[in-house]
Amino acid sequence: MKKHKIAWMLLVATLFPLAMRAQDRQRAERINAQRVAFITEKLQLTPEEAQRFWPVYNEYRKKRMKLEEEKARLVRSYSSSGGSLTDEEAEKLGDRYVALEKQQADLLVEYHQKFKKVLPPKKVLMLYKAEKQFTAYLLRQIRDRQRRDAPRSRR
Fold this sequence. Notes:
Layout: H1 2-43, H2 47-80, H3 87-118, H4 121-149
Helix pairs in contact: 1-4, 2-3
């Protein structure tokens, strides 16, 4: 009986993270679908523009998210240190963070040129505005959900 219990616990311990990752993937896919609909509506993309734009934009987002993830890892690394980094370690983390910020800026410059090749200049500007609006929309959703899910005693 004890062997079955251990086997069951190992199975649950193995499957739970997989299920959580699957939920995260589904959530990310849902958010991405919302982003596509939001940007398409805000930019009023024609079918031809959409066909040219989305591959470029998706490539840009993928590269941008990779840089964001690396920045998040740096921040977690600093946070998990409890502030006990040496000056040398802190300098390396800070320098790497700034280098990643520069890479993001360089990426935007690169893709700004690519966006201008597939969209009229006004729609490129609208894209930047739509991205900010979508981020604000997501943050509002998160805030509203947190308020809704907060225990009654905190209200």
